[in-house]
Amino acid sequence: MEASGCLVAPAVFKTDEAEQLGLAGSIPVRLRHLPRAVAARPVTARPRRTGRLGRVIRPATPADVPEIMAMIRELAEYEKAPNEVRTTEDDLRAALFRDDPVVFAHMAEDDATGEVAGYALWFLNFSTWRGQGIYLEDIYVRPHMRGAGHGRALLAELARICVERGYQRLEWSVLNWNEPAIGFYTAVGAVPLEEWTTFRLTDEPLRRLGTAAPGS
Hints:
Blueprint: H1 17-20, E1 29-30, E2 48-50, E3 55-59, H2 65-78, H3 89-96, E4 104-110, E5 116-127, E6 131-141, H4 150-165, E7 170-171, H5 179-187, H6 203-211
Parallel strand pairs: 6-7
Antiparallel strand pairs: 2-3, 3-4, 4-5, 5-6
């Protein structure tokens, strides 16, 4: 999803959030604030099998880029904003697999068939109150793969990374009408930041302000 539009700015969860997350009625997620990116640490490449249903959560590889791009478009279609996707496969490849990645991705797949069920796209941010953390840009599970726990497994893997590295925060955004998703996040202990409002600069307002900067 795009940052303005599952926790993204504003993050969006898709139709039955529990279902989108592979829970039981959830929707893809977007993150609320666009935090500052910080130096990245490599993600362990070992696939993690979760539960009794043969779910596999693993870091994305360059070969996954076409599937990730396809799911980004699926998510945009769901959000009724297909024309907002301007990212290309080359953009993703460059951001994910450079020497100092600016973003990371995990894939959810069926262990028996190898079919890709969904993905989570995230990056590191920094809070002046809590230090380094993870900002979840997108989380998405394909409709026919929902209900098997893939979404929950993706969230749990990011939480595991936070705990392992000593990060104190995992955050994302959700559309305020997505009650099933909100209910799920509340149930796992997430707290809505109802006192915060997301602001964003894009397109002409961004260019106008940027060209007004000293020395531009």
